[in-house]
Design brief:
Layout: H1 5-19, E1 29-35, E2 42-52, E3 55-59, H2 67-75, E4 77-82, E5 85-96, H3 107-111, E6 115-124
């Protein structure tokens, strides 16, 4: 179920800045650090990220056309802050929610979304 646009907009300007203060420290919350496609500005977006071995899945509750998702897919990589660690994620792609590549712990949240952002941990900082 895709979250309505008005809720996404409110979250972008109200909820996300607040969640960004703590999300990178408390799993499964995490912060995606990415660069804007056109602005070339740095952005930080709080998400629910599920990590298993070297795989990462993030349920896309706002859909694959959200700005941060398009930025990450265009770059092919991003930094994920989760549990106080910085993880470099590469090989980024959008998968259907029922894909077998979705990590096990993300399967229930993925069922509520249309798609999942998937990537591989390539290094830890």
């Amino acid at each position: 179920m895709k979250v309505p646009h008005i809720v996404a907009r409110a979250n972008k300007y109200v909820t996300n800045p607040i969640q960004g203060l703590w999300a990178g420290r408390i799993a499964p919350w995490a912060v995606v650090e990415h660069v804007g496609r056109r602005s070339n500005r740095d952005y930080r977006t709080p998400v629910l990220a599920f990590v298993e071995d070297d795989r990462v899945s993030i349920a896309l509750n706002y859909g694959a056309d959200a700005d941060w998702v398009r930025n990450v897919v265009a770059a092919g990589q991003f930094t994920l802050y989760r549990s106080g660690k910085a993880l470099r994620i590469a090989g980024v792609r959008v998968l259907p929610a029922d894909s077998p590549d979705v990590v096990r712990s993300a399967r229930i949240p993925a069922m509520l979304a249309e798609s999942v952002l998937y990537g591989r941990v390539v290094s830890e900082r």
